[in-house]
Amino acid sequence: MQGIVLSRRDFKEVDQVVTIYTKEKGKRELLARGVKKIVSKNAAHLEPFSIIHFETAAGKAIDYLTSVQPISTFVNIRSQANSTIAASRAVHLVNTLVQVEEPDTRIFDLLRSCLRYLNETSFQKVLLDGFALKFFDLLGFTPVLNYCVVCDKSAHDILAADLAQPEKENFQPGLYFMGGGLVCQDCRKKKVATGESIVVCDLKEVSNMELLLHGTWHVIASHTMEAREQAKLHHLIFEFAQYHSEKKLINWAA
Ligand SMILES: [Zn+2]
Fold first, then answer.
1. pLDDT > 90 in the chain, percent
2. How far is the CA of 151 from the centre of ligand 1 (A)?
3. HEC-encoded secondary structure of the chain
4. Mean pLDDT of 156-170
5. What is the Å distance from ligand 1's center to 185 Cα?
6. pLDDT at position 169
């Protein structure tokens, strides 16, 4: 079976429990016996974000790994600190939000393609935001970005209203997490007046989110943004992700 190593933790003196995301069975926790011994052949292959081929045997409480062969250890990622952190954050995010044995081949493919791209190129911050947004899309949390989720006004009309309003104070669209996406200027005003929380955003950020959601890794990496624009985009995506997560997330840009 093929899988991506998500994490490993010590278990007893020389064993470890290794969490692996497999294409066929989703997330699995397996016991790696004796892996902490210096002579263990498997130890090096079981580093997080390596892709391995492995075999298992049934155990009483937990199945255990009987053989491990590396398919890709992503040496280029491991040679760059930024890329190593990014890859670790990506597998950590999957590990945090995915339950054991709930297979989704799309999640496997997304994670593998992201790791391959990171391995072939130099690190760019925006890739992780793209990964997070695509991952949440697969989990069923896809932000509505082309119309107001309250009154159905199109993004085009929201943009027109934005351009027609020179005084922008208090007249900006927003992202309404509870409602599932974009809200127009008028609806944001009404919602804020009733005490609901809406993150202000502009249509530039909305189109950046569209690009992250639908673009290939290459398209995302080639998209130039100013540092401030990128920071705002990250903030928006992180808040969106945190809102839809029951667990507290580690900020992948930190
Ligand atoms: Zn509206």
1. 80
2. 4
3. CEEEEEEEEEECCCEEEEEEEECCCEEEEEEECCCCCCCCCCHHHHCCCCEEEEEEECCCCCCEEEEEEEEECCHHHHCCHHHHHHHHHHHHHHHHHCCECCCCHHHHHHHHHHHHHHHHCCCCHHHHHHHHHHHHHHCCCCCECCECCCCCCEHHHHHHHHHHCCCCCCCCCEEECCCCEEECHHHHHHHHHCCCCCEECCHHHHHHHHHHHHCCHHHHHHCCCCHHHHHHHHHHHHHHHHHCCCCCCCCCCC
4. 80
5. 7
6. 66
